[in-house]
Known about the structure:
The structure holds three protein chains of three kinds. By secondary structure, chain A is mostly helical. Chain A has helices at residues 29-43, 55-62, 66-79, 98-121, 125-143, and strands at 82-85, 89-92. In chain A, strands 1-2 form a two-stranded antiparallel ribbon. In chain A, helix 1 crosses helix 3 (66-79) and helix 1 packs across helix 4. Chain B is mainly alpha-helical. Chain B is elongated, with a radius of gyration of 19 Å. The interface between B and C is medium-sized, with 24 and 32 residues.
Amino acid sequence: MTDESRVVYTVYMNKHSWITLSQSDPRALYLQVIEQIQRRVAVGDLPPGTELPSIRQLAADLSVSVITIKRAYLELEREGTITTRQGKGSMVSDHPGLQSSIAQRELDEHLNQAAQLGSLLGLSKTEMQRRIAEAYEKSQRKQK
Amino acid sequence: MNTQAIQILFLKDLFLSRWPLFGYLVGGLLSAMVTYLPGETAGFIGFILMITVTIAAGIHLIGVLLLAESIDMTRVFVMSLPVSLLDYSIAKISVVLVAFLIPWLAMLASLTVLTFVVPEAKPGILPFLVLLFLFMLAGFCLQLVTAVVTESVGWTIVVVVLGNVLLNLFLKSLWEHPVISQLHKSEVLLWPPIVLQIMAIEAIVILVALGLAFLFQIRRRDLV
Amino acid sequence: MSTTLHQPHQSMAAASLRGIAKSYKHFRLNNIDLEIEPGTVNGLIGPNGAGKSTIMRIMMGLVTPDQGTVSVLGQPISSRDASAKQDIGFFSDDMRLYKSESIAFHMQFVRSLFPGWDEVYAQQLLDRFGLIAQQKVKGLSHGQRVKSLLLLIFARRPKLLILDEPTNGLDPVAKQEVLSELMQIVNDETRTILYSSHNTQDVEQVSDTITFIDRGRVIASNNRDEFLDGWRRFKLQAPQNWQAPAIDGMRPESTFGNLRVMTLDRYQTGVEDRLQSSGATLESSESMTLEEIFVAAVSRGREEKQ
């Protein structure tokens, strides 16, 4: 098997398998698309260099309008999650550490929320740290 | 004008009406034969049968091929295909006419043959039969133009009923006409001027009715 | 394929209606201007009787307008000229097939008129739609009839699809089958879809542009996301004598005691501040679903007419 990090796979996009949109989700459809692609990249399901389906292909497969996918891809490109080559379509960015940078962003968001909740509950900083350490240890145990 | 499209539409309609067509063809031929069976009753029954078959064929074909298309919205389906209104009109009017002419001609032809084949039959009856059949064809064409213009079953039936009444009056007056009523006794085929005049009138009615139907159809602005 | 925002290379509109008017005994279609870009999915939304069907029939040459011009795929449409229809697929809820004949008969009939008919794809569609070719039309359920009509359209791969309420009365399974097949067309940037419904949900997800029709007039026409981004509903607490600030496109929707509900059709950042500084307390600023936007746009349109 060749060097996996440099091989560009074409992920075979089966409708409904790796990305699901919910009409009942009040967030705009393009935001759902962005979030799901980011998630797949963050957990490693879409490694760097993976070719993404063309805008029209993805729109057709998900039964959503082309403008939804265009908007999602545009935003993902702006963020650096994907890159577009003229005439070659889009692919997951090659940037090393991209995986972790998305996850890092998510971690920061969650930590911010936790901090806000903690101060709302009136927890002290030490108490807060204790709680976080507890949660971390629990997840470490689960992984074993 | 797309002759290929016209052909396809024409054949499609013939195919759609294949069962009634077959039925009326067979019915018509049988009626013609019954007319020439020995005995006056047979002749009378056969005569009535032929008229019945012809009238029924006319109504049925107009119903299936003309009225159904506008009532059932199959016309919308056909016109969503690459056929122009002209193609559609030509195909439609001609197929309804041809479909009717099949049993009609079959009956007239077999009557003609039988007239010369059956020993008791006198050829003089032929002009009388021709007048009758042309009258029924004219009646059919009037029903056709009514169906095309009104797209209404109601009005078409009115014309059918009127046509029937007129047919009876026509037959009565033919039977009372000094010249025509004697024709059936003639051993020789005669075409007296009065017969030719009536034929001419019938032909004019047929052509005018068909022409009007066609013109009306191609100038339709709303097909739905 | 690039991810830029350009439309496909054809600058020619897939369909264009200018100044279309049509009068019936109890209904009038007035001054309809509509432009359909190639390679797009266009939703036409309107209440029953608004005129969607009439507009689509005019585009197909089934109805002749009293005024205005229609051009489809670059050709003026008329009932005389059939060639444009070679590349168009039209579906209408009231279209019927020949009851006494089978689906196969219709496939053969349509195939004889379309050299571009794809028989392989047609067979696949029979399978995907769960249809039996030998079955007679009179034995078909409503959903099967609709799918048969759509099969006859899809299999000839038209450049422009004009579909008048195709998902009306379909059960959720059939609807999904139809929509996912329809959306495959989006893969081809030279093909265009115009799709009408009185139900916004059917249209909302798949459309690039949306046009609202009501009582024979175009109420609004825009890129779908601009509708969704542009409309907002504000809930305010304001005293009785409160004067709403003059904001373009803002209209009151309802009042309940001190609660005022207002809608805006061209949202920009800063509107909330203006509302706050006018002496009202802003309770919420929410986006609206396409259905809510539709209802609001229609009621505005009707008010304006009076």
